[in-house]
Structures are given as C-alpha cells and as structure tokens.
Amino acid sequence: MTFRADLEIVAAALESQVAAARGRRTPVLAQRPLLDLIEDLHLVRLAREGGLTGEALQRFTDAYLDSIINLHQPGYMGHQVAVPHPAASLGALIDGLTNNPMAIYEMGPGAAAIEWFVINWMLEKVGWTPAPAESGQRADRTFGGGVLTHGGSLANLTALIAARSALRPDAWCRGDQGDLAVIAPESNHYSIDRAVGILGIGTRNIYRVPCDSRGAMRPETLPQILARIRADARTPLALVANACSTAVGVYDPLRPIGELCRELGIWFHVDGAHGASALLSTEYRHRLDGVELASSLTWDAHKMMRTPSVCAALLVRDHRTIDSAFSQQASYLFHDKEQPGFDFLHRSVECTKSAMGLRFFMVLAALGEQGLARYVEHQYRLAEQVHDYLNGIDGIEVAVTPESNILCLRLPGTDARQLTLRDGILDHGDFYITSTEFQGRRWLRLVFMNPETTLEDVKRLVGQLQAMEPLKSDGAVG
C-alpha cells in the first residue's frame, strides 16, 4: 500500500467518526479494561510482525476509534481540552511527517517563523509591544517576547525560572539560597506547586492568598502576607494570579494585584492557561483588566483556541527576562553561524520542540481572529444561559455565577452522592462531565468546550441526573 492509500483509509475513518460524534450517534465515552483493548488492537502481534497497512490499518484504526473519548460529541462537557478544528489536524499531519524540531532556526525555518508570528500576535492581544523581526532593530529597545511550550505546566515553570533569573542572576550557578517565597491564591493550579518544588524553593514556602466566596483572590490581604514574608526573612520571588481558576473558572482581580506588584517590584505572573483567550473578545476582555501590568502570562492554545494538545505560550512583557532565564553550553548548538532567523532554544526547557505554532496558526488562519472570538463568546454565553436555567430548578445549587465557560452544580446529597451521579452519567454514555472540590464541598463540573453543545443538551443532562434514584443511605445534605 502507498502512503496516499493509507492516508485515505485513516481520513475516511476519522471523517466517519467525527460525523457520528457530532450527530450524537456514538457515546462520548465507553471505557473498557486495559487488557481488553490491548487484545482488540492486536498490539502484541503487530509489534512482533509489523504490517500495519491496508486492511490491517483499517481494522486497527476502527478498533482504536472505538476506544476514544469523543470530544466532538456535544455531550462532552468534561476537562479543559479543545475540540480541535479540522484545520489543526492538517497542521499536525504536516508536522508529524516533516518532523522539524524547530528550537533552532535551521532545523525548521517555517515553523520558527510561524512561532515568531504567533508569539507577536499574542503579545499584541495582551497589550505588550511585539518584537521587531530584524535583529538590528532589537538593540536597546524594550519589547515583549515569548515561547511556545508543550503545555501550560512547562509555561508556568519557565515563568518562575525567568522570575528567579531576574531576581537572582547568579542563581543558575549558585542555586537556591533558601530564602525565596512564592505568593499564590488558595485556588492556584497544581502546576505552580510543582514548579516551586522543581526549583527547590519548597512548597512550604508558598504563601497562600485567601479567596472570597467566589474563589477569587482577595488583594486586600496582600499587605499582611507580604509582612509575614518579611518577618520570615524571605524574599518574594513572584506573585501568581489566576485568569481563570481551574475549579470554577473565576478570574482574580488583576489590576489591583498588578499595581501593587509594580509598586513593590515583585514579578507578577498571570496563569491564563484557560481564560486568557477572553482577550480576543471585546465582550469579555474586561475579565483580564490589568493583565498588561503582568511580568509574564501563560496562555494555552490547546484549551480555548480549538488547537489539539499541546500548544501553550509563555509571554513576557520584557523579552530580556526570558532571554536570560536559562544558561547553557552545547557546542553543537551554540556557536557562530549564519542566522537569518531566530533560535527559540535559549527560551525553552525543551531542546526538541514540535511545530506547535503550525497547528495553532492553521486554526487561526481558518477561522480568523473574529471567528475565534465568536467561539469564545459562544462558550461563555452558554455558561451564563445554563446558570440562569439551573437557578430556576429546585434542588440544584450552582457554586458561583460563571465568569467563563466553566460551571459547577450540585444536587441534594453528600459529596459521595455527587461522585455517584457522575459515575451514573458516564455509564449512560450520552455525556461526559467531571467533578471538583470548591469551598470544602464536592461539585459536578461542566466545561463547555464543544462549539455544538446547546442548552438543550444541558437540559437532557439535568434530566438524567434527576432521574437517578438517591442512595437510601445518602442524606439530603452535604
């Protein structure tokens, strides 16, 4: 078989699968035991004998697609994972076959050019100055910078590395002096704790900022926290804020936090992995009011910009902070050479980087800025509509008024009851939802990622939840 023939087999199978999912003719998720899938996919035989082409490829692809979670099914209301635009898959195909590890320009000029463009496009959306393309124009100028990384966790880690290098330029060689502290809301993403642990600062040196009843940081408590840090003889490395929180999708008040950080000279990092895409919308951009005061921003394209996993950006207001974040020696990479482009390697944890920007740019080029903005607005409005609908139903509690496309609800019963309800929904197969803890209680969590999910879908979901008989041992209060 030829590559073209195998490509047509896979393309036809994918087209059929997506059509069935969009038409609600297939379950969102039908989990099967691991060993059963290994057997059904004939992994042992294929690994031993090869021959994955033609009819064998057809059988394998069909079996694999029977095992997936169908993000294109409108009943998908689960994790913060993009329902990819078809154009992105073309970018993934091109990247997969050409395999240009573009962290250095000569190993992927086109991919590096696209990443440069995408980073500058994002910088402009934040309100920061994009970088000039000509190297001669970069000297003695202040402008933004950034890099695409394989995930928001790496972006957050890179932000704290840049913050450390800005505060302690000798830290790369001398290591941690044992006096640094990170300030973060009680609702910060776990990747912040991971980054602090990786850097050797220690998670016990994260000073948690109290949140209000909505889960947003309370900036009025920051002076007291800073006083504690001084009393503990520690130095603030960075202050982290959410835009938006993972659990309930609420934005921290960025402007007062940013103004305080700028006044005191503290690195201000905004974790906008999920919610920074509201910058594209004139209707919802105000959620990030003050983001331009930040020192750095994490922004994931693989969440709210229809791009397959993973493609995240770390953006900085001053390019010098990321250009000096790392210190490395590798004579086979770093030496005098003709340089018609830009190497991203010195900005990145990864040495080998895929052409992430290509996948995202093909979505951007297919939909245009306004198309992406309309998608974000549609998902945010749907959450508002669902909130209004649920508020009219006795026995259903909503955690907070949604500020993004995330909504948490709770039916009567204990925390265990909420998990039982979720299990029942997953077993039924029409919907996929998650759960989270918020304000000390367990909630069912809906994240509206699919552009074809409607209020009618949510009404059917609520009907299924209400139809489930409560456990006799389960009380009516949580």
From TrEMBL:
InterPro entries: PyrdxlP-dep_de-COase (IPR002129), PyrdxlP-dep_Trfase (IPR015424), PyrdxlP-dep_Trfase_major (IPR015421)
Superkingdom of the source species: Bacteria
Gene3D superfamilies in the record: 3.90.1150.170, Type I PLP-dependent aspartate aminotransferase-like (Major domain)
Any GO MF annotation of the entry: diaminobutyrate decarboxylase activity
Cofactor(s) for this UniProt protein: pyridoxal 5'-phosphate
GO-annotated cellular components: cytoplasm
EC nos: 4.1.1.86
Keywords: Decarboxylase, Lyase, Pyridoxal phosphate
One of the protein's GO biological processes: carboxylic acid metabolic process
Record-listed N6-(pyridoxal phosphate)lysine modification sites: 303
Family note: Belongs to the group II decarboxylase family.
Family matches, as PANTHER family: CYSTEINE SULFINIC ACID DECARBOXYLASE, GLUTAMATE DECARBOXYLASE-RELATED
UniProt-recorded name of the protein: Diaminobutyrate decarboxylase
Protein's organism: Thiocapsa marina 5811
